[in-house]
Amino acid sequence: IFSEERFIQRFLDVEAALARVQAAEGMIPESAAEEITEKASLEYVDFEQVAENVADVHLFSMSIIGAWKESMGEAGEYVHWGATTQDISDTALVLQIRDGLDAIERDLDAIAEALEELTEEHAETPMMGRTHMVHALPITFGLKTATWLDEINRHRDRIEAMRERVEVVEFFGAVGSLASLGEDGLVIQEELGAELDLAIPDVAWYAARDRIAETVSTIGLVTSTLARIGKQVLLMNREEFGELSEPFEAGEIGSSTMPHKRNPVRSEETVLLARLVRGHADTALELMETYDERDFSATLGEFAIVPETFLYASRALSYVHEVAAGLVVHEEGMLENLHHHGGLVASEAAMMALAEELGRQTAHDVCYEAAMLALDGEASFADALLGDERVAAAFSGEEIDDITDPEAYTGVSSTLARRALERSRARN
Questions:
Q1: Which among 18, 12, 37 has a CA at the least distance from the CA of 187?
Q2: Which of 124-128, 142-146, 381-385 shows the lowest per-residue confidence on average (mean pLDDT)?
Q3: Active-site residue among 132, 256, 260, 297?
């Protein structure tokens, strides 16, 4: 989509569409428009001549046109009628972006489907929930994947909403006034937009680069979510966690010197790719600071960052889809970690049960003291609780065991996971 050849093809597509609508309005000969349309193909462009022209004239639009129009004879004199370089290049870039967003949306759809399957399968799979990098309260793995799915779906919404602002034509003449064509230019503008299926902006956006910055920044949001998923997989993939494994195919090599290794390279590289995209998002925001009515010192930078942004994002999307679709979930490892501290991670459950007998603040103090004893290894959390006369008077040992069972304290994790799943599937 973002190869040099494809950009030139899109450039020719815009020029041909412009010729057709101008011929329909009697602005240029119909025969010229037909010839321009017929020759709007890379086979009629001498790329070596384009390179030579660029070296001579330093303007890529005229370099392309100069190498192209030779194949058209007299019709070549009607190419680029009333247009300026940025009219064609911006519109060509928008067509590339539209194709790129189509590809990203397809990848997001595939990731959402894979996450839906994980969420459905593991809606009730208990695991340790963590905050501040330490054990907090039990959740289910399906609830965790539901947060990934929900975030992916918001990006799908963002891209859909963004399209109406980004997918617009540029055709306003040298300084945005359409002076060379006058009122007729407004008609051509409308018909060009219709021909290319692009919206018509109210005014020129030569110097207003927010559309491109929004595109790159939105892709930055998408890849940052992919990196969040990647980092979670990297952590839970560690042998010390033993909760997840990246898919690993026979023949993959993890290390040139350590034959035993199975490196989670997809997740690692996803994190890197997201960093690169965020760097481009920062550059895109810088490129919004333009001068006057047009400023190539800013807008030419987009030819560097937009293609790379889409390429990095595409690779990251591919990696995350592979991981999500082939993720190995070690339920036994999740259970082992959940029970690492015995019933200690159900301290909130114990506190809320005691609160009905002792009051909330007193119950917190009792559970805190018992938790500290358990953490110091002096007793299990359940035994430490029962060592308090107030607790022993209110609950039996069996009741305390039930209250402090971490597998029984996942709240409505499965309900929330299924709610996110249902809403995701309803949008498809």
A1: 18
A2: 381-385
A3: 132
